[in-house]
């Protein structure tokens, strides 16, 4: 649950205790939060809970297994797989680590801060070492420019 949702649920609880009408509460939320206001159905759901005597503004614990795929161990495994072969598709990475493809995508983009360039996953930001390496290569190419251009042959159709 986001901080904004929690704030709105607290406000709904307060307004319900003041005896405000459903439409007035929704109107006030839209006035304060604009486009970020909770949807009408969600507002009415929380209002009903508070009318019935509920005191807690947070969601109750849900049954089921908690999400554990996006942990440090799997992030390290994905990092190692990418270092070995940046051309692997997300599906094969997910199969190797045995986790969901969407989780692998989130690990790559959010945790490892990478993006897809053609068929490779590359870091969004170059390290200082890689930047320096690129500068060195470019300077070398500039120095060898005359040698390279001196060996280019051109010709006509004959």
Task: Write a structural description.
This protein is mainly alpha-helical and 158 residues long. It folds into 2 domains: 3-51, Arc Repressor Mutant, subunit A (Orthogonal Bundle), CATH 1.10.10; 68-147, Arc Repressor Mutant, subunit A. The chain is 59% helix and 5% strand. It is built from 8 helices and 2 strands. The protein has a two-stranded antiparallel sheet. A hairpin with a 2-residue loop joins strand 1 and strand 2 (120-123). The radius of gyration is 28 Å and the shape is elongated. The model has no long low-confidence stretch (mean pLDDT 82).
Elements, N to C (H/E): HHHHHHEEHH
Distance between the termini: 74 Å
Helix and strand content put the structural class at mainly alpha
Helix percentage: 55-70%
Low-confidence stretches: none
**Principal-axes shape call:** elongated
β-strand number: 2
Mean pLDDT: 82
Taking all Cα atoms into account, the compactness measure Rg is 28 Å
CATH architecture of the largest domain: Orthogonal Bundle
Q: Count helical runs.
A: 8
Per CATH, what is the topology of the largest domain? Arc Repressor Mutant, subunit A
How are the strands of the biggest sheet laid out side by side? 1-2
Beta-strand content: 5-15%
Overall tally of structural domains: 2
CATH class of the largest domain: Mainly Alpha
* Largest sheet properties: 2 strands, antiparallel
Task: Write a compact overview of the structure shown.
By secondary structure, the protein is mostly helical. It folds into 2 domains: 3-51, Arc Repressor Mutant, subunit A; 68-147, Arc Repressor Mutant, subunit A (Orthogonal Bundle), CATH 1.10.10. The chain has 8 helices and 2 strands.
């Amino acid at each position: 649950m986001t901080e904004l949702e929690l704030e709105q649920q607290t406000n709904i609880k307060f307004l319900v205790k003041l005896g405000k009408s459903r439409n007035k509460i929704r109107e006030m939320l839209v006035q304060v939060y604009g486009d970020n206001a909770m949807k009408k159905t969600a507002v009415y759901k929380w209002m009903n809970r508070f009318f019935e005597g509920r005191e807690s503004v947070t969601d109750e614990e849900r049954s089921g297994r908690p999400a554990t795929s996006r942990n440090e161990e799997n992030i390290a495994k994905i990092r190692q797989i990418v270092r070995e072969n940046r051309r692997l598709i997300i599906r094969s990475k997910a199969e190797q680590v045995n986790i969901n493809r969407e989780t692998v995508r989130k690990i790559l983009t959010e945790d490892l801060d990478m993006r897809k360039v053609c068929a490779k996953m590359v870091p969004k930001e170059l390290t200082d070492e890689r930047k320096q390496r690129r500068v060195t290569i470019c300077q070398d190419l500039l120095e060898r420019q005359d040698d390279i251009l001196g060996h280019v042959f051109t010709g006509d159709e004959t």
